[in-house]
Amino acid sequence: MAQTLSWASSYYLPAVLAGAISKDIGVSTSTVFGAFSVALLVAAGIGPVAGRLIDRLGGRPVLIVSNVVFAAGLAALSQATHANHVFAAWALMGLAMGSGLYEAAFATVVRLYGQDARRSITGVTLFAGFASTVGWPLSAYLENAVGWRGACLAWAALHLVIGLPLNVLLPRAPRADQASKEATGAERGTGAGLAPAQQRRAAVLMAYVFAVTWFISTAMAAHLPELLLASGATLAVAVGIAALVGPAQVAGRVIEFTFLKRAHPLFSARLATLAHPLGALGLGLVGTSAAAAFAVLHGLGNGILTIAIGTLPLLIFGAKGYGQRQGFLMVPARIVQAGAPFLFGLAVERWGDSALWFSALLGLSACLALVVMTADMSKVSRAAEVH
């Protein structure tokens, strides 16, 4: 529930309020989204630091502080009268995003439950998958009722009244030295038992997969209606089909929570990376009549991959040092996410709906990276059986 609030009041806020903010303070909408990109870059920088603190102290104090920083950033944004104020407020929000969104939540449950955290990670994303469903209508309602400044203040108050108490209720993690003594052999080890060189290659491949995942997800969030219009859909149809992505993401997480709960996380991730390319292929070959299938496939894959971002590092590297490692693995993803709307926008301007071939190839390359990781792990498993 706290993650739903954090996502709704940060990542999903500009889509509703950017227009009103830009009009009120006399800047372009792109400037407001530029400030949001700054927040993503700040989040990339602070992520490893927050992860290391969670490894040492547990997630409870870090998430509590993130609620306070979220509230401060939103309050600062509500008082903005100049572009510089907007950038400063979003930079502050970036500190909270880097220490209070999924990566921090995943590190928190891994710190509490170790190798058994997969189910909790899936549960967190299942709830927070409704962040846009809750956040967009609520932000729109608040803007209409009390203006965009009042909406920001209302979100800030919700962090203090709801988010902070929820995170206070989290269990306290044992101290790092005590946790190290109590850890099982699997938790102390490297998860999959990879050699150092294989671990480095796995880290590079994993960071690439995460970067591709977030690039495609953010690009589609920004340009999906435009792409559907370019494929021949009417505006009403394009908006309606784009709205299917959110429920499909939640459906993907339900599938992971139920049918795929016993499947290997690498298998689930490989399956999920193929969903967007398959949908793009259908849209490219069949046209607008396949648009709904594309949106659903994209959403399903994206929902499962969000879980993979939490479970794959746990599987490959183990629970020890998970928070800091997760922070570093997500740095490239945060950086490309910041540039995704602009870069993919250029592709759409140049190629129209054919830009989907570019995102589809990226998805296939992510699947290939996961295949290489699977092969490395299979070699380790065979070697262990021989010994």
How does this structure look, described?
It is a single chain. It is built from 19 helices and no strands. Helices cover 83% and strands 0% of the residues. The protein is mainly alpha-helical. The chain folds into 2 domains: 2-182, MFS general substrate transporter like domains (Growth Hormone, Chain: A); 185-386, Up-down Bundle (Growth Hormone, Chain: A). It is globular.
Task: Summarize this structure as a short list of keywords or feature phrases.
19 helices, MFS_Efflux_Transporters, Growth Hormone, Chain: A, cell membrane, MFS, mainly alpha
CATH topology name of the largest domain: Growth Hormone, Chain: A
The run of helices and strands is HHHHHHHHHHHHHHHHHHH
Percent in strands: under 5%
Q: How large is the count of helical segments?
A: 19
Distance between the termini: 47 Å
Corresponding CATH superfamily of the largest domain: MFS general substrate transporter like domains
Q: Helix proportion of residues, in percent?
A: over 70%
Classify the secondary structure makeup into a structural class. mainly alpha
Q: For the record, what CATH class of the largest domain applies?
A: Mainly Alpha
Assign an overall shape.
Answer: globular
On the 0 to 100 scale, the average pLDDT is 89
